[in-house]
Amino acid sequence: xxxxxxxxxxxxxxxxxxxxxxxxxxxxxxxxxxxxxxxxxxxxxxxxxxxxxxxxxxxxxxxxxxxxxxxxxxxxxxxxxxxxxxxxxxxxxxxxxxxxxxxxxxxxxxxxxxxxxxxxxxxxxxxxxxxxxxxxxxxxxxxxxxxxxxxxxxxxxxxxxxxxxxxxxxxxxxxxxxxxxxxxxxxxxxxxxxxxxxxxxxxxxxxxxxxxxxxxxxxxxxxxxxxxxxxxxxxxxxxxxxxxxxxxxxxxxxxxxxxxxxxxxxxxxxxxxxxxxxxxxxxxxxxxxxxxxxxxxxxxxxxxxxxxxxxxxxxxxxxxxxxxxxxxxxxxxxxxxxxxxxxxxxxxxxxx
Length: 352
Ligand code: NAD
Ligand code: IPM
Ligand code: MN
Hints:
One of its GO terms (cellular component) is cytosol. Homodimer. By secondary structure, the protein is an alpha/beta fold. The protein folds into 2 domains: about 1-100 and about 265-350, Isopropylmalate Dehydrogenase, CATH 3.40.718; about 115-250, Isopropylmalate Dehydrogenase (3-Layer(aba) Sandwich). It is built from 12 helices and 12 strands. The chain has helices at about 15-30, 45-50, 55-65, 85-95, 120-125, 160-175, 190-205, 215-225, 240-250, 290-300, 305-320, 340-350; strands spanning about 1-10, 35-40, 70-75, 100-110, 125-135, 145, 150-155, 180-185, 210-215, 235, 260-265, 270. A 10-stranded mixed beta sheet has the order 2-1-3-12-11-4-5-10-8-9, sandwiched between helices. It has a two-stranded antiparallel sheet with strand order 6-7. A hairpin with a 6-residue loop joins β11 and β12 (about 270). α1 packs across α10 (about 290-300) and α1 runs parallel beside α12. The longest helix is centred in the N-terminal third of the chain and has 19 residues, at about 15-30. The chain is globular and about 50 Å long. Bound molecules: nicotinamide-adenine-dinucleotide, 3-isopropylmalic acid and manganese (II) ion. Manganese (II) ion binds near residues 242, 246 and 274. 3-isopropylmalic acid binds next to α4.
């Protein structure tokens, strides 16, 4: 197969982790007989420095004409007080590509149980939670403004936006344990009351075979930390999903492990780790590339329909972790650490 992938290295650790991920994709291409053409896209802080714009139209076009998009991360303290921020590029990409569904699977393999900050009895049998985060609506994209003494951001959802993300969550649940927990703040927010009623209606009318329950977001955070194995699929709003997925990631060992797929109703999708640009360790060959590498596995499966290739990556990652290899962020007893490039190479070498 011919694959055309737009790669946005971005800022901070972005260039290092996308480099490692390309090494793995190249190995997949050679073992399975595919051809990959990469187009490098400049976005985020790098594009502010080069063009004065976090996402110039030409760079966006490169993404729109690719089959799929791989993103490292954007942002950093250098641009914190810039009039336009690197993060704007990410939000603009999600909106322009219509990527309303963000799948963030948090999978803890038993060999990483020691790396979880939770008590061993909570994680020793592994964890498998899928956060389905709404990605192009809510407070991130509502009306906003400020004056001399105040500022506001409006959380607004339409029934259409809620219906389509609910469908994604129920469809995902059908291929898993068949249980969805919808997370909201319906005891306070109007938008959450609508969220709850639409999610319930979609379940009753279209997915009676899937179990649905509702949870307030504050309780959900507590439940994830104290009884994570009760969860299968969590569906929630843009901001609640952002916050809860950092939590589900860290209980599975490290934020450096958790991939994501951002999907619309057509290609290209965008694939990125859920973590940020980690400015504190940028340029030191320390960052964990596994979240980005697993994002490539999601890309191969979801944008290209290459399930065996995706499984080959997942097997390679598991094999390397089971053999005891760790990057420094995975706090696992006395295991020695290796760097970003070495981790990428080991995983690529495991694909045969
Ligand atoms: P962060 O995720 O970048 O870092 C949080 C902590 O996790 C840091 O200590 C960092 O070193 C560590 N970490 C993150 N990824 C790691 C990896 N792969 N390997 C090892 N350690 C890792 O979050 P932050 O510090 O809040 O944000 C830094 C910048 O990144 C900000 O500008 C933020 O807006 C941006 N950001 C971008 C994205 C994205 O591009 N998708 C996502 C989140 C944050
Ligand atoms: C993420 C990030 C982004 C978000 C930021 C950088 C805009 O935190 O992808 O999780 O909040 O969506
Ligand atoms: Mn986030």
